[in-house]
Amino acid sequence: MSPEEVDIPEEALDETFLAGSSPGGQHANTSETGVQLRVDLMALGLNGRVLNRLRHLAGSKVTKDRKELIITAKGSRSRKGNREEARTRLAELIAKAHLVPKKRKKTKPSWSAKQKRVDRKVKRGQKKALRGKVDLRKH
């Protein structure tokens, strides 16, 4: 599923505007262009596995009660740009949560691969043993 295909219900979203921290000088300092997008995860209507993957992917952006996701966008000088950025990031997260991870197939080395490894170790050990100090009294 691509981010463009994600349908986000407006009832699940709550926007708050913050003072921006982006470049823009006095404009950024005096106007509230930053956006904090709070998303009610239950109102998104996702199935349990997708919801759990979304919570895992979002990490620290999910509240402690695991019911809300908070996305903050302050990069643009305009409210419109920040709103679009926050919604795009949300759509990308939801699209990524819809992807089912591939199961890992357990593998183990073959008997001959183990044997070759042990042989190499023994050979290397013998080579290192020959590097020791020569004791002239033995000869």
Give an overview of the whole structure.
With 139 residues, the chain is an alpha+beta fold. The protein has a domain at 3-98: Double Stranded RNA Binding Domain (2-Layer Sandwich). The protein is 40% helix and 14% strand. The protein has helices spanning 26-30, 48-58, 79-98, 111-129; strands at 13-18, 34-40, 68-73. Strands 1-2-3 form a 3-stranded antiparallel sheet, covered by helices on one side. Helix 2 packs across helix 3. The longest helix has 20 residues, at 79-98. The radius of gyration is 29 Å and the shape is elongated. The model has no long low-confidence stretch (mean pLDDT 85).
Strand order of the largest sheet: 1-2-3
Named CATH architecture of the domain at 3-98: 2-Layer Sandwich
Beginning-to-end CA distance, first to last residue: 77 Å
Helical segment tally?
A: 4
Please outline the major beta sheet.
Answer: 3 strands, antiparallel
Query: Under the CATH scheme, which class of the domain at 3-98?
Result: Alpha Beta
**Topology pattern, helix = H, strand = E:** EHEHEHH
What is the third-level CATH name, the topology of the domain at 3-98?
Answer: Double Stranded RNA Binding Domain
Unreliable runs? none
Radius of gyration: 29 Å
Shape category: elongated
Mean of pLDDT: 85
Structural class, from helix and strand content? alpha+beta
Beta-strand share of residues: 5-15%
DSSP E strands, number = 3
Q: Percent helix among the residues?
A: 25-40%
Protein name: Aminoacyl-tRNA hydrolase
GO molecular function: peptidyl-tRNA hydrolase activity; ribosome binding; translation release factor activity
Keywords: Hydrolase
Region (Disordered): 97-139
